[in-house]
Design brief:
single chain; 227 residues; alpha+beta; six-stranded antiparallel β-sheet; 9 helices; 6 strands; globular
């Protein structure tokens, strides 16, 4: 799957821009989730690093764009004014020698794009939203949000535009960016080190997810043109 021949076979999926169609987003999400949930228990719950690294690998090949896995903090909207903050404190980030030394971090995917007439925008992809309720329950936060999407996939500035004003002065956000997602360089460095130490990601999981994507695409009427 990592040969030049197999990589070039995905050229037909290159969108040359964003957004990619909802059908294509769903197909990539399904493919990555199928592989991660097959390897890990509880349908891949708690494996945001794996989703991010495998997803970035698949996206880079399918869409021919420089997607990268990043790590840092996240705010989860749990419904009815309840929010969960996922971000390790400064001491934990400073003292951590490996990713598993951290708790309450999050990983997702980003890709910088040059948009005509606009400039540089960041495309953000989070394939773990299906686990929001389990995450909230794990940390003892009541979850009552009615809608739970499998993924979040949009321009980052569009996502952040929905950040609620009521949270901006909340003690929960003290010393933190007023955002749903924010990258931390130390967390991303630990994620990259973890990726390098896990050869199964490149050798097995990304090729398997690409195969799964190909099967999903070939067995459906997916539309891959930009919306």
């Amino acid at each position: 799957m990592n040969s030049p021949e197999s990589t070039s076979s995905f050229a037909e999926f290159d969108q040359g821009g964003f957004p990619v169609s909802l059908d294509l987003r769903r197909a990539i999400d399904r493919a990555v989730h199928a592989v991660v949930s097959e390897v890990f228990l509880i349908q891949g719950f708690g494996q945001c690093a794996t989703y991010a690294v495998v997803g970035a690998g698949v996206l880079s090949k399918v869409l021919n764009q420089p997607y990268r896995a990043v790590s840092g903090g996240e705010i989860i909207d749990c419904g009815n004014g309840n929010y969960l903050s996922m971000f390790p404190d400064r001491k934990a980030r400073r003292d951590a020698k490996k990713l598993s030394d951290l708790r309450e971090y999050h990983c997702w995917i980003e890709c910088g794009r040059q948009v005509a007439g606009v400039g540089r925008r960041i495309e953000l992809v989070d394939l773990t939203c299906r686990h929001d309720q389990l995450t909230a329950e794990h940390f003892g936060v009541h979850f009552s949000r009615r809608y739970v999407n499998s993924f979040t996939w949009d321009w980052k500035d569009q996502i952040e535009a929905s950040f609620p004003a009521i949270l901006r002065d909340n003690p929960l956000m003290s010393g933190r960016p007023k955002a749903w997602y924010w990258e931390d360089s130390r967390c991303t460095k630990l994620l990259q080190q973890w990726h390098q130490a896990e050869p199964v990601i490149e050798r097995v999981m990304i090729p398997a997810a690409l195969d799964a994507f190909r099967q999903i695409f070939c067995n459906s009427d997916l539309q891959i043109s930009g919306q």
